[in-house]
UniProtKB/TrEMBL annotation:
Entries under SUPFAM superfamilies matching the protein: lambda repressor-like DNA-binding domains
InterPro entries in alphabetical order: Cro/C1-type_HTH, Lambda_DNA-bd_dom_sf
Protein name: Helix-turn-helix domain-containing protein
Organism annotation: Plantactinospora siamensis
Occurrences of domain HTH cro/C1-type (ranges): 17-73
Lineage: Bacteria, Bacillati, Actinomycetota, Actinomycetes, Micromonosporales
């Protein structure tokens, strides 16, 4: 059975906290202060206690403060590596797909988007991921 994004991200966070503790002597309180991510959020991430993806800005800030590649955090979350800041220019249809995915992920992470809308997005993604593909003619 594949690992859930919650478990993979919790493992990533645990490793980052352990490294910060051993390399810098930081407690979770120090970590929260330096990364801008609150203690309760850190503990939720550690417990895998989230249904909507963590706020990507917080993940980026956490990684930047610890010198950890954001791409590693995104991989743990099961997201495309790193650049969700904007569209990728000059790549044709691939850029449009990347932009669509970025928009979907940002909506799932946006606390202003209603839970019902997020549920609809997840159900549609679930449907699309599992429907049979058509054969090329």
């Amino acid at each position: 059975m594949p690992e859930t994004p919650q478990a993979a991200f919790a493992r990533f966070i645990r490793r980052a906290i352990d490294d910060a503790r051993s390399d810098r002597g930081w407690t979770v309180t120090d970590l929260a202060t330096h990364t801008g991510v609150g203690r309760s959020t850190v503990f939720r991430w550690l417990a895998g206690d989230w249904q909507d993806y963590p706020e990507l800005a917080k993940v980026r800030g956490f990684c930047a403060a610890l010198g950890v590649p954001v791409a590693a955090a995104f991989r743990a979350l099961g997201l495309p590596d790193g650049d969700t800041a904007g569209p990728r220019a000059g790549r044709g249809a691939g850029a449009r797909v990347d932009e669509d995915i970025r928009i979907i992920l940002s909506r799932l992470a946006d606390p202003r988007v209603a839970a019902e809308d997020k549920k609809d997005i997840r159900e549609m993604l679930h449907y699309l991921a599992r429907r049979p593909t058509r054969r090329a003619s």
